[in-house]
Amino acid sequence: MSLAEGVLVICYGNPLRGDDGAGWRAAELLVEDPRALRARVIAVHQLTPELAEDVSRASLLVLVDASEEPGIPGSVSTRPLKAEPVSGSAFSHHVDPARLLKLSETLFGQSPRGVQVTIRALDLEPGTALSSPVGDAMATLVDAVIDAMDEHRLLHA
Amino acid sequence: MSEIIIDPVTRIEGHSRISIQLDEQGQVVDAHFHVTQFRGFERISQGRPFHEMPSLMARICGICPVSHLIASAKACEEVMAVSIPPVAMNLRRVMNLAQIVQSHALSFFHLSSPDLLLGFDADAAGRNFFGVAEAAPQLALDGVAMRKFGQQIIERLGGKRIHPGWIVPGGVSHPLQPEQRDEILAGVPDALERIRRTLSWYKANVARWADEASVFANFPTLYMGLVHDNGDVAYSDGDLRVVDGTGKILADRIDPRPYWDYLGESVEPWSYLKSTYWKDLGYPNGLYRVGPLARLNVIDQFGTPEADDELHQYRDRLGRYPASSFYFHHARLIEILHCIHSIQQLLSDPGILDDRVRSVAEPNRSEGVGVSEAPRGTLLHHYRVDENGSVQWANLIIATGHNNLAMNRGVLEVARKYVHGTKIPEGMLNRVEAVIRCFDPCLSCSTHAIGEMPLKVQLLSADGLILDELAR
User: Fold this and answer.
1) Closest approach of chain A CAs to the CA of B328, in angstroms?
2) Cα–Cα distance between B61 and B110 in angstroms, integer?
3) CB spacing of B130 vs A45 below 8 angstroms
4) Which of residues 108-167 of B touch A (CB under 8 A)?
5) d(CA B469, CA B123)
6) Which CATH number is A31's domain given?
7) How many CB atoms lie within 10 A of CB A102?
8) Global pTM?
């Protein structure tokens, strides 16, 4: 399978800020997971415009991140992403998921289907350890990424 | 007395605030560029083993960690009293040049090209990199590719793009492999094509920005940078040269390590960013600039033919010692061109694959200073250690600190041109920010905040009433 037909998983966050490192931990687990063999998995601190080319070459983009949204710590949710208009941000060092998709579309003529998988964080203070509820839920987080891949394969079977 | 506050300044590395003081007639009497965050790495480093310093100091900045790695490793090598293997020096040079490429690309394409392409008075909501991608996709593509080119070199050499651990006291941790070299060299033609296209675009459009160029910190100062013995630009080594706005050389090829002999450091109560000044001229008259504009003013030549041709064109157009900080932009592009050629030259030497890449020693001195050229200018790390090599004291002078006095004066001059009366013209806000952006200040290096705030500007009367207010 070529990359153009493949799945790109971008796990992001700061591994030195407690549960914000959940994405990086998920990346470590995914590269060892035989269910994700055909996916390209990368871990980054934040989403940047330089990722747009890689994104444009994928058929499915899965973004994995920790979330500060209210909810039960360790709970995992999946939501679809849509490329959004470019206005409204004066900051260019990093981009949000919707704008990353839009940038891929604008610069490279195409953007993949996008899914964001998030895990509710409990502790974002400096440190390399995940909190107990987030650490205990890592398998669920990885399963959610695999589910998104499976759904994509079914849609394109 | 009235006051205008711009808080925060956007599209720079970090967060800051600008205040502009008006008199009763609404005329600008003073302006300050406030750096409102504090980090304190000099204090954090106390008690740490000296050999940890490069990796610790690299955490100062996610944009230019390589600069801190190099300056810090050099300071450690002073403490160790060792010379590093020549191939290690060349490998560090490659990484430093790659960092300059990616950092300059970030500054020019991501942060400044929205103003240049879309206009300084374009709607702020769309005046960003995404707006550039819509209006001029090729320019944005070139920016993305140029930054990626530099970052991938850093990643290939150091294992990761941000905070690579490859540069260590004594050299580098492991030698270059042929496949790494070949991968980097394979990207050179594309990178050259992109920077040539960008330079052509810039030169074709520069007349559009004549008004901004005339007022963006357009005053003579001293200029400082590292040069080789033959006058070529130096980034990872070399000695200091300081010239004034007429080209008079105040210091030439002086050892940069005893910097305290000629640089003073001053602190103002309104900013966490210290200001340095040329001691002979005192504070604040001894203001000087570092970084791309200053480097082009102090060097005789780059040492790579195509960049030297661009340098001649630049000097033909602007004179030998351009004073406007607007030309930082042009200087950055020429430096990118030179850096790509230099990377190609260094990697084309078969000796670059030598495997003797590190000198090993215990501490043999109690003090060390390391100096290099970061993308934004000269960077100094100075450490004192005890008999066990534990850091007792550290001092850092960052490019943004060298430029602080000039940035403040630049803000004042722009404010004087655009601010009259009790209303805040949007064009003034844009240009005050843009003049700061020319310097590409890195506030994370000099102190970096977390988070984003809306731009808020207030015009206050002498008795504290809000006369006018703008928010983004």
Assistant:
1) 19
2) 18
3) no
4) 110-111, 114, 124-131, 133-134, 137, 140-141, 143-145, 147-148, 151, 162
5) 17
6) 3.40.50.1450
7) 22
8) 0.88
- pLDDT tens column, B268-315: 887 888 899 999 999 999 999 999 999 999 999 999 999 999 999 999
Minimal Cβ distance to B130: which of A45, A93, A103: A103
Distance (Å, rounded) from C-alpha B132 to C-alpha B144? 12
Please identify which residue in the block is written with the tokens 């602080």: B404
A113 touches chain B (CB under 8 A): no
Structural domain total, chain A: 1
| φ, ψ (nearest 5 deg) of residue A88 | 105, -10
Mean of pLDDT over chain A: 89
Q: What tokens does A20 get?
A: 């914000």
Of residues A96, A63, A92, A100, the one with CA closest to residue A80 = A63
B312 residue type, one letter = H
What are B435-466's pLDDT values in tens digits? Answer: 888 988 876 554 322 223 334 445 555 555 55
Portion of chain B with pLDDT greater than 70, in percent: 88
Distance CA A109, CA B394 (A): 50
A135: containing domain? 3-155
Classify strands B222-227 and B288-289 as parallel, antiparallel or unpaired: parallel
Tens of pLDDT along B358-402?
Answer: 999 999 999 999 999 999 999 999 999 999 999 999 999 988 889
pLDDT at residue A3, as a whole number: 37
Per-residue pLDDT at B9: 63
pLDDT of A55 higher than 90: yes
Residues 6+ apart with CB under 8 A from A78: A115, A116, A117, A118, A144, A147, A148
Best to test chain B binding among A92, A95, A128 (most B CBs inside 10 Å): A92
A107 and chain B in contact, CB less than 8 A: yes
CA B10 – CA B8 distance, rounded (Å): 6
Contact call for B10 and A102, based on CB within 8 A: no
The string of pLDDT tens digits covering residues A28-37 is 999 999 999 8
Instruction: Give the per-residue pLDDT at B467.
Output: 59
**Which residues in chain B are closer than 8 Å to A50, comparing Cβ atoms?**
144, 147-148, 151
Contact B128, B11 (CB under 8 A): yes
Q: What is the DSSP letter of B111?
A: I
What amino acid occupies position B136?
A: A
pLDDT score, position B469? 54
Interface test with chain B among A51, A87, A125, by most B beta carbons within 10 Å: A87
Tell me which residue in B131, B147, B148 faces A86 most closely, judged by beta carbons.
B131
Q: Is A57 on the interface with B (CB under 8 A)?
A: no
Domain spans, chain B:
2-38+408-471
pLDDT of res. B381: 96
**pLDDT score of B1:** 56
pLDDT(B334) > 90: yes
CA distance A86 to A98: 9
Chain A residues whose beta carbon lies within 8 Å of the beta carbon of residue B62 = 45
